[in-house]
Design brief:
five-stranded mixed beta sheet; single chain; Rossmann fold; 453 residues; five-stranded parallel beta sheet; 2 domains; binds 5-phosphoarabinonic acid; alpha/beta; 47% helix
Length: 453
């Protein structure tokens, strides 16, 4: 049985036609060959394609130790955080940290990604340092937010447990040589994993970055990787365009981009809310270059039906929509009401809550189509490790392939780097004085006119 299906009959408009999609077949084939050659040659950025089949013994060994902890605090941001949150959100029961320990069967998990003193302190107050592990993740090993949060937790651990006790409870996940974290590992002798050099931050969820905490919390990462490998086989470039859901999706996104440079992913499952955030980074950072790209919007059904659908159906025609549904295993059968005043709710009696949710998704797709808005409906067979692994590989591939069609490099992020360098300059880091001067000049321009209220 397949992993997902994509219905795209309502994705065409006056300017984006079926013939136009078919015409992209040679370019998509070329893009697929480009990606596979890059991965085979170990080119920087292309390594995510190999992750489903790479060895994971070192990750599993460390995850077994991590699983014995009462709490895990992960310090990281962007691609060093969003993938973990996405995996946990999709595959662990809701309210994980609130579940009693015996029932939970794995450590609590806290993410320290943003720089917010209130958050860092709150996490510290919730954990017992003795029974905690701090996992610091940074591909570059130098991101200011991650460095600041790690300095905070490292000092707290040292104060509570002494240097040796702190060191035993820290795991570093970073590049083999770049940044300041690798020298820290050498200096302190703490545990560490190497982030593969050919895998970029936002494509790293199926590397030790995402797998370490997921395995420790009891997620079946073997099935996750097998699902990703299976998807890779399914979308490998041999067959025809119309047999390849990833090619159809990349092709349609590419064709719509001129007129509709917003792509909305509307998931109908709370467990996929974080998937939308992970996707937004993947899509935005990979494609937003050289004046090109499309703005990712994450929406959650049914909540956003009561917030955004008015805009989607009747606002500007500048968006392509993907409605993502999943067959839910756990269901609620709606009870019969006793009260006379609820007579008019009889239509709900005996119906399934998952059924209601999927009808809502269908209704939304229909309403968009009725309004002449291009919409695709994607259905995931189930929300388990195999299907999620497949979904991740699918979206990474679609993103990279769309980058190829747009003729942008999907694997770099100069805009992100500039922001990081400006921050280093403002914070007085050695070697970034020029960036500090540049920010000063730009801030002066921003402040040239101001008004108060
Ligand atoms: O995708 C990327 O490369 C970035 O968004 C990074 O994930 C993010 O900036 C964090 O970087 P790092 O892992 O180097 O600390």
């Amino acid at each position: 049985m397949g992993i997902l299906s994509l219905a795209y009959g309502a994705a065409f408009t006056d300017d984006v036609t079926f013939a136009g999609l078919e015409g992209l077949a040679p370019a998509l084939k070329e893009g697929d060959a480009w990606l596979r050659a890059g991965a085979a040659e170990g080119k920087e950025g292309f390594g995510w394609m190999n992750l489903p089949r790479r060895g994971t013994d070192d990750v599993q060994a460390l995850a077994r130790w991590l699983a014995t902890r009462e709490s895990i605090v992960q310090v990281g941001i962007g691609g060093s955080a969003l993938g973990n949150l996405m995996l946990h959100g999709a595959l662990l029961p809701p309210y994980w940290n609130e579940i009693p320990k015996a029932k939970r069967g794995g450590p609590r998990f806290f993410m320290a990604d943003n720089v917010d003193p209130a958050d860092g302190r709150a996490v510290w107050d919730l954990i017992d340092p003795e029974n905690t592990a701090v996992v610091v993740v940074s591909k570059s090993g130098s991101t200011a937010e991650t460095a600041a949060n790690f300095l905070f937790f490292w000092e707290k651990l040292r104060d509570a447990l002494g240097s040796a006790g702190a060191r035993e409870r820290v795991v570093v996940v970073t590049d083999k040589e770049k940044g300041i974290l690798r020298p820290f590992v050498e200096e302190t002798g703490c545990k560490s994993l190497v982030l593969p050099a050919d895998v970029g931050g936002r494509f790293s969820v199926l590397s030790c970055v995402g797998l370490l905490s997921a395995w420790a919390l009891g997620i079946d990462c073997g099935a996750l990787l097998a699902g990703a490998a299976e998807m890779d086989d399914r979308i490998a470039g041999a067959g025809s365009l119309l047999d390849n859901a990833a090619w159809v999706m990349a092709g349609l996104n590419f064709l719509h981009i001129n007129k509709r440079n917003v792509t909305v992913l509307m998931s109908y499952a709370d467990a996929l809310e974080r998937f939308g955030e992970w996707f937004a980074q993947l899509w935005g950072e990979s494609l937003g270059k050289d004046g090109k790209g499309s703005t990712p919007v994450r929406a959650l059904g049914t909540i956003d039906q009561h917030s955004q659908i008015q805009l989607y159906t009747s606002g500007p025609d500048d968006k392509l929509y993907t409605i993502l549904t999943v067959e839910g295993k756990k269901d609620i059968v709606l009870p019969a009401a006793q009260e006379k005043s609820f007579e008019k709710l009889a239509y709900l009696h005996g119906k399934s809550m998952n059924g209601l949710r999927n009808f809502e998704a269908e209704a939304t797709a229909a309403a968009l189509s009725k309004a002449g808005r291009p919409v695709m409906s994607m259905s995931l067979g189930a929300l388990d490790a195999r299907h999620l692994g497949g979904l991740i590989q699918f979206f990474e591939y679609v993103t990279a392939l769309t980058g190829f069609l747009l003729k942008v490099n999907p694997f770099d992020q100069p805009g992100v780097e500039r922001g990081k360098d400006y921050t280093y300059g403002l914070m007085g880091r050695d070697g970034f004085a020029e960036q500090a001067r540049e920010v000063e000049a730009l801030s002066a321009k921003i402040g040239e006119r101001s008004v108060a209220a």
